Amino acid sequence: MTVGGLAAHLASFAGALRARGVRVVLSDETDALSALTLVDLADREEVRRALAVALKIRRRDRSVFDELFDQYFSASAREAAIAEAARTRSVPHAAVPRRIGAPGWRNVEGETARELPLGDTPAYSPNALLRRKSFEECTDADLAPMERLLIRLAEKLATRPSRRLVPARGRGVMDPRRSFRSALATDGEFLRLARRSRAIEEPRLVALCDTSGSMDAHTRFLLAFLLALKRAARRTEIFVFNTSLTRLTSWLAPGKVVRSLERVSASVPDWSGGTRIGECLETFVENHLDATIDAKTVVLIVSDGLDRGDTEPLVRAMRAIRSRARRVVWLNPLLSDPRYEPIARGMAAALPFVDRLLPAHNLETLERLLPWLAA
Questions:
Q1: Reduced to 3 states, what is the DSSP secondary structure of residue 100?
Q2: Cα distance between residue 49 and residue 53, in whole Å
Q3: Tens digits of per-residue pLDDT, 269-325?
């Protein structure tokens, strides 16, 4: 399947959605094709999430979307698309898939687009292995390379093109209205076509990270990711909480993730101690909600939800946050265990106000987070 074939296949999928009453317009299809260049094509669920976001699938249409997705994006079709994309190298800015081992493929973060041998022999890539390594299993030797990958991932988020088109010089799609307006000054002669391209729209994020003892194995890496997000996207506010809430944004040294982490761990009260999620989020609502969250803000809460305190403050705080934010995403490292169910008191109380509950136990799971932060 060529890239043109992939576009035709996607157009057929969009047509099937419209035939079933799901509203999908041409610009959504364009966004969906672009989204497929930013995700791991071997990961079927990642492709599903990316298309659902790009096509703006509403909750009431999700069952129809899932049914048709299973028909149009089978495993065999996915493998054919991956192999052809690697052979032709025609998809702009897409990472080239590399076989790490049966049965799946993975994009190697940071590798330039070049042709790689496509066989059954596994290829070794330290970055690929590190992306899938659980934060709990990381050693001191993994810290520096992991933090470099986290910084690169955050920069990738901050440079994602938005759906908004803005005037551009040189490359881009033609802007008919501006082109005709410009031609009026030259007696209707088109001396130069006006063009538009997708803007790089910096995300607006508010992150609240749990630094209690139960999160200790994951805190350093998750905070490194959040600090890198702040470095790459200036409109990012970071708070940490355990038994109290602390605003970190003013503490952070630009471009110095490691130094910031050391300062934070030494200065935040009750680091790696107990947790009062509800009281801390209620403090955030009382003191920071109006100044930091609006209808364009994505709120990212990082916690295992293990809180034995009163759930009423948590419910009040989550309701207030959800009423103002564009989207609320909760990252829970415990989701790495397939047996996990969100039945702990804190997690169960917060869940009705969460748009997405996602895992956060390794770099690969953080990569899958990007569409939900930027879309």
A1: strand
A2: 6
A3: 877 788 899 999 999 999 999 999 999 899 999 999 988 778 999 999 999 999 999
Nearest to 12 by CA among 34, 31, 29: 29
Distance (Å, whole) CA 170 – CA 194: 9
Q: 181-227 pLDDT, tens per residue?
A: 666 666 666 556 677 766 556 678 999 999 988 898 888 888 888 88
Q: What is the DSSP string of 19-61?
A: HTT----HHHHHHHHHHHTSS-TT-HHHHHHHHHHHTT--GGG
> Do both 211 and 195 map to the same domain?
no
How many C-beta atoms surround the C-beta of residue 189 within 10 A?
9
Radius of gyration of the chain (CA): 22
Residue ranges of the chain whose pLDDT lies below 70: 1-5, 40, 75-126, 157-193, 197-202, 232, 251-259, 374-375
Q: Is the pTM of this model over 0.85?
A: no
Tell me whether residue 321 is in a domain.
yes
**Residue with token string 């070794």:** 124
Report CA torsion sign: 346, 226, 222, 334. positive
Tell me: do 9 and 119 sit in the same domain.
Answer: yes
130 falls within a domain: no
State the CATH number of the domain containing residue 348: 3.40.50.410
- Sign of the CA dihedral running 329, 332, 336, 342: negative
E strand or H helix at 50: helix 44-54
Q: Helix or strand or coil: residue 372?
A: helix
